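Lab meeting notes turned into a lecture example. A postdoc, R.K., suggested we walk through two folding results consecutively so the class can see how the record format repeats. The first protein's sequence and structure tokens come next.
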Amino acid sequence: MTNTLIISFDLIRHGEITKPLAIASLLAHQRSNERLRGQMYVEHLSINMLEHGGTATPEQFEVQLAALDVSRFNAIALSAYIWNEYLTNGIIALLRRLGFLGKVVLGGYQVTYGNRAELLRRYPDCQVFISGQAEQAFAELTDHLDADEPVFVNVPVDFTQLASPYLTGELPVPMGAGMVRLETKRGCPYRCSFCAHRDLATHRVHKHPLDKVFKELAFLTEHRVQRVNILDPIFNAGKECLDIMQEIVQLRTRSTFTLQSRFENIRGQQVNAFLDLCTQANFHLEFGLQTTDHAVSKKIDRANRMDLVDAAIEQLVEREIPFEVSLIYGLPGQTLESFQRSIDHLLSKGCRDVKAWPLMLLPGTKLYDQKDQWAMREDAMGEFRIPVVTESNSYTRPEWEVMDRMAAQLLPTNRLEKVA
């Protein structure tokens, strides 16, 4: 029996379930299969970064990790995300000092979208790198622990065979829970150069079976969950979204459902059906528009159709459907003036909830590889020291600082909290 520990670095806000959906999905898949369950015993430790703050050091977790007796594990897997990047190698070194002699496993966005040479340089004491959809790769971890050299694992996942974290009890939901997360599909059909949601290996969107999604919705309704954040990068891409919304309406749930959507998809034959459903339950739409400037949007491979965007906004405002729009500042070709125009345009169209977030260059994305082309400079910002672009060949650092203040005035909060 292989003993494995998962350490996840999470952003758990008040009222949220403490185990993240991604980890629960890994565990549900591994534990629901008798053969896989018999090969590996798994424990999970969640570290809530919001409790420790961005000034946390690896030494702050020494007592917590020492209490686990890390020497008894054959493998320790860590989640690698942009908000805990500054801690990753330090935590690995701490585990070694505490007596851990097994294999270090890394997975998460920082691994999935990094190239091999860069990953080996960035994480010199990692022996197994898991990229892509991780459920099956993690379940087969025991096959890779005897390798003498670092191993890179990317195993396709059959989404029809994935166990539900909710229905298996892997993710317990208390009655009246404040907020839970749900996904009906993974991946994005679009190719925006800044975004890491797209499956860069297969370029596919992976859909969960509708009957599984419907059972999860019924489960969450029975538990009277207050808010369900659906994580699909673009919920309203594909006709299945109407079936899911119709099921939510029929369940007569009082939960609020947040749906990340795209303005340009609110058109054609489905437009009235989509908008009608939006008025029949508690739906809140979130649109990541990023910019209203067509020239800037083309530089990030998005090319927004502002005629369709404006038409969709008009219908949403007319029907009083709750929605918010987010922008990005620091984009290539953007200027202080064009960012101001984006804000003014949305406000003039009746958007009451406009947010803006700084540009991050995520490993593996096209824009990450283009940073020299746009003379982009990054600085570590906020409590989690997340690198954001603060200067390019179209705006200066002082101009970026003005954009940052403008964004703060839209939503006076920690600017990097939601980006993470």
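The second example is placed directly after the first for contrast:
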Amino acid sequence: MQRRKYLIHSILFLITLATTTAAGAEWIFGRLFVPYPSSTPMGWAEFVAGFNFSIPFLTVLTVHEFGHYFVARANKVRVTLPYYIPFWLGFVQSIGTMGAFIRIEDTISSRRKYFDIGVAGPLAGFAVAVLLLWYGFTHLPPVDYIFTIHPEYKKYGLRYGEFVTLNLSKANNSAVALGDNLLFWFFKTYVADQSLLPHPYEMVHYPYLLAGYLSLFFTSLNLIPIGQLDGGHVLYAMIGRKRFNTLAPILFIGFVFYAGLGFFRVSDFSTGNDEIFRDQLLKLLLYITALFLAFSRINDQPITALLIALSVAVGQFALSFAFPTAEGYIGFITFAVVLGRFLGVYHPETEENEPLSTSRKILGWLALIVFILCFSPKPFV
């Protein structure tokens, strides 16, 4: 039985290594393995180049999960080895995985144990992510590197960045830029050689930078102090169940409010075009449904979830009307639905509710600082 479990973990890891390597190759070379009619199909050499993304990214993910694992074992809590989740389709851009998780096989009896296990993963992964970013920004390839991916930029030389947006527009293509967080901005501004720093829309082709940025992004999501996320475990342990279950829904509603801010504006419905009005109305109904799902476990009464959803939507409309440039990040809504509907906003109660030691409280504040350093209000532009 034990050998069978090890085999499952190993197979999942190897499949995830393959899928993240394929995804990394797609980001590096800017095309998918299932090619469009006008694109050149990728082969073995491009796949191998994808290891420059998959190995550092999975290293951070693995260190994060084993941080949880070893601390859980030290606290005599039975846990499984990490289950890696491969996810790659070949015809849609992805990062090749939906992450990893360990399964806790015991009831965690105390706030202290929740804190130790919860904080260990993000802090361990963050330390490796910082090293990865330092390496990526101090070992940027020569400018000629981007010309191997975009030969059309070569004629512009070092001024290619001035023409990137123009070329994208002419080709009717879309591109992704990595949104800043405090740590990524620091490395870009003060660590990187500015003459080698790629244009924001070309940074995804640099595998170490992409792996490092994604590591920070997922660290920040894990440290959101809600529900049974790592940040939720940490905050619950620091302030106790009663205060946590009062604060967590407030934080969650605030997070959802920010996410959808600016997605709808009053002007969207006053164009005078009936077809556009119907399309926007349908879009709004789908959006309110998503909000309802996100808030569905915040209270036992469905009508409460619906009222909160409608109140958030009205508040977003009002703020967007008063401040037309205010805008959140709609991509967070999907995460909010998963968090609110499936993971839950509240935290399970523990038998032992002893306060944390001073040293653990300091670690808790350090986790908050890490969250602030890693969080990007608009992760992908």
